[in-house]
Amino acid sequence: MFSSIGWSETIILVIAALVIIGPERLPGALRWTINSVRQVRDFAGDATTHLKRDIGPEFEELRKPLAELNKMRGMSPRSLVTKHLLDGDDSILRDIEGALPTAEDLDIAGRPAPAPAPAPAAIEPPTSSAPHGWQDTDYT
Length: 140
Description:
Blueprint: H1 7-20, H2 26-55, H3 57-73, H4 77-84, H5 91-99
């Protein structure tokens, strides 16, 4: 019930209780709180027991649809469609998934991504002995 409360929150609550209630009345307040929580648990358990006894087999009939709903709650949309509409055969969905582009194929706006630019051509070293940009000319 209180699994999300950490040690730091517990310490803050104890300090707040000491300030608000006072150190002399804190043990009595803690006892009263613990007894109240136990009574609420007992009342809830007794109510369930009385329902099971009074309603009997009808109570179990009510639990079956609830159990089915809990099973459905854990299912994904794909498994629900596969189970109820496609009778467990998900080959159609696999074929559709194979035809759809993946996230890597799309840009941010959902359009097909442009093809990657080709790698630049390798620069060939000059074949002449003249400095770069100069032409070899024979003026003889």
